[in-house]
Amino acid sequence: MLEIKTRVSGALIVKTVLLKCVSLTAPYVKQCHEADPKLMECFISALHHLRPYLATGITEIELPSVEPFRMDELSLSLTGGPSGFKVTLADIDIYGASNFTVTKIRSDIDTYQFQITLFIPHISARAKYVSSGILILVQASGGGDYWGEYEGVRAKIYIRAKPILKNGRTYLSLQESKMDFSVKSIRMGVENVHNGNSVLQAALNLFINTNGQELLKEMKPDLKKKLLATLSNFVENLFAKIPYDAWIVG
């Protein structure tokens, strides 16, 4: 029993030491100096520096890859009534999120508030779908594969944190986060519809491509909620593993 406890304690010590050394050796950390008159430009450069590491994941701080970024499911009702058309997307894989450009950043260092505006030129999505109800006078219950191509994605992210002391270092703790996004153009469709129903597939694709922005509007509340939860978990993990004074030097 003593040997097992010793091994566990040793592993925890090694992990703690590695995390303490992150700021000194981590290639994904680009430091900015608080007194720098071009601090906002440095912040943008630091976020851009992080992009390839987000694409592959950072094992040492247990940060998974965002390529693809996976969501469990999204549900939406597209028409009303007892036979209204409803769709559930599941096992959603989103590609292209790491290919972002920070177009603007505003920050209040004293209150640890950050507002970041991003542009992503192209995002692709793949998912399984299940539908029920009637659409364009066609019984549309069934399932298959969903695909989506989103061009010109713009997002605005707000983060507010507070400093905490841990092991003699300053870390940040996430207090509040918000986000919103827009998409310039959308192409979506379904394929491999169950039972090879070509009539249903044609009806679905006609409806989807005619009403792309309206469908996104219906999806947006649930999508924002899930994206914000994922973003918050990501930021909390980043804040917990990397000291604030590793990123910003006073």
Automatic annotation (TrEMBL):
This protein's record includes keyword Signal: yes
GO cellular component, one term: extracellular space
Entry keyword set: Biological rhythms, Signal
GO terms, biological process: circadian rhythm
Lineage: superkingdom: Eukaryota
Keyword Electron transport: no
SMART domains xref list: JHBP (SM00700)
Family note: Belongs to the TO family.
Protein name (record): Protein takeout-like isoform X2
Species for this entry: Agrilus planipennis
